[in-house]
Amino acid sequence: MLDIDLHSHSNVSDGVLTPAQLVDRAAQRGVKMLALTDHDDVAGLDEARCAAAEKNITFINGVEISVSWRGRTIHILGLNVDPEYQPLYEGLAAIRSGRTQRAQNIAAELEKAGITGSLEGAYAFVGERGLIGRTHFGRFLVEKGYAKDMKSVFKKYLVKGKPGYAHHEWAALSQTIAWITGSGGNAVIAHPARYNLGKNVLNDLLDEFSALGGSAIEVISASHTPQQVEIFAAHAKRRNLLISCGSDFHGPGESFFDLGRLPELPSGCVPVWHDWNAF
């Protein structure tokens, strides 16, 4: 099992644990290098970094940025970023402001399906920062019995063609990669299998991502089958991209992979951290 996890969430975005609690769980489960990658927010990094220092964990500044590409929403991880880099900081603030409107649109779509009170219900699960996302609506739907668990939520609701889906324009791919690389970080495509792209569209995305300065593909992910791990490893090799790994941990009982429980990297690939000289 890998002791490196470069994709995790705290309650600053849509995770359950505080940044310090997340680090504590990672330490208990043998993680040696951890990135906190909250959605569109870097507010939890200082707390997590301090906790990681106490636990002798190498901590990586991270963020998961919402991107619109060809009418789809994809997620780009920024790893080893400078959270004080002004274009990144201001760009994330702009994205967060759009989440409020999207939440209202999601609630309106759920109401059309006969599900009332979802906006207030979702906000009941939101942390102090007020950042709201689909996961918060998912917890409301589970609590009210509309779905048995979070996995069921995203099969029945909140995705394209299902009740509660609301299209939203996020940041552009070129803009996002520029923010990340400008801050000195690595841009990584998160869980690419989740987007259900056909072969040609996937190739277009990976080619554009690489041409814009993207660094790596998240090959090891809770969203990927062993076969998909090999497929995305081959894509990385073909384009001379690095590979990354992450549990996408949100909380106990909600995530397919727990912290510290990632399978080994496929052979012949170069990890995104290979040239992080400080480590």
Automatic annotation (TrEMBL):
InterPro entries xrefs: 35NBP, PHP_dom, PHP_domain, Pol/His_phosphatase_N, Pol/histidinol_Pase-like
Pfam families, per the entry: PHP (PF02811)
Domain Polymerase/histidinol phosphatase N-terminal: 4-69
Protein's name in the database: Polymerase/histidinol phosphatase N-terminal domain-containing protein
SUPFAM superfamilies: PHP domain-like
Molecular function as annotated in GO: 5'-3' DNA exonuclease activity; 5'-3' RNA exonuclease activity
NCBIfam families: nside_bi_sphtase
Annotated TM spans: none
